[in-house]
Design brief:
6 helices; GMP Synthetase, Chain A, domain 3; 8 strands; ribonucleoprotein; Small ribosomal subunit protein uS3c; four-stranded mixed beta sheet; globular; Ribosomal_S3_C_sf; alpha/beta; Ribosomal protein S3 C-terminal domain; ribosomal protein; structural constituent of ribosome; 2 domains
Length: 218
């Protein structure tokens, strides 16, 4: 039977680079991974709390972490920076303080930078969030999927596939529904494919959203 592999891990070193960039001794490796997870969660929580609009939209495409001996550098790729930062510098400083509080690392500085993503709706994370929001507002899932695909088509990608699994529309039996537009060549390693899986809590239970976006071929 077909085995499904994460398309990002499958293409590491060819079209895909790591989201975290550091080296560690084997005994410290797991602590490093947990630290990364903590940083990411802390940033997401902060953005969730301090959003200006009540839309529930974070708009974070991805968070890159680079670690050196004395410095942790965090780059947040965000689709809609104005959601996070009214007074730009204050927002970043506050966020930095928050994350620093989580870590009691005395000898390491934390540096947070924010870069804006050119085409936010070409990013699977932002799209998944958009769909999750629609589903929470009781929009029918087909409508939400089609709307998401329309938004992506404006960013001239070559193909997109969206999949939703779980108790869709509150039905008793969970099922998987998917829809594809254009080509999504998952077997071709040359093809640069962006992927994300996102869980959203609805009143019926948890739904899983997966998105594959075929950006271009090398």
């Amino acid at each position: 039977m077909g085995q499904k592999i994460n398309p990002l891990g499958f293409r590491l070193g060819i079209t895909q680079s790591h989201h975290s960039f550091w080296f560690a001794q084997p005994q410290n490796y797991s602590a490093g991974i947990q630290e990364d997870e903590k940083i990411r969660n802390c940033i997401k929580d902060y953005v969730q709390k301090n959003k200006r609009t009540s839309s529930g939209f974070e708009g974070i495409a991805r968070i890159q972490i680079k670690k050196r001996i004395d410095l942790i550098q965090v780059i947040i790729h965000i689709g809609f920076p104005n959601l996070l930062l009214e007074g730009r510098t204050r927002g970043i400083e506050e966020l930095q303080m928050n994350v620093q509080k989580e870590f009691n690392s005395v000898n390491r500085r934390l540096n947070i930078a924010i870069t804006r993503v050119e085409k936010p709706y070409g990013q699977p994370n932002i799209l998944a969030e958009y769909i999750a929001l629609q589903l929470k507002n009781r929009v029918s899932f087909r409508k939400a999927m089609k709307k998401a695909i329309e938004l992506t088509e404006q960013t001239d990608t070559k193909g997109i596939q969206v999949q939703i699994a779980g108790r869709i529309d509150g039905k008793e039996i969970a099922r998987v529904e998917w829809i594809r537009e254009g080509r999504v060549p998952l077997q071709t390693i040359r093809a640069k494919i962006d992927h994300c899986s996102y869980t959203t809590r609805t009143i019926y239970g948890v739904l899983g959203i997966k998105i594959w976006i075929f950006v271009d071929e090398e």
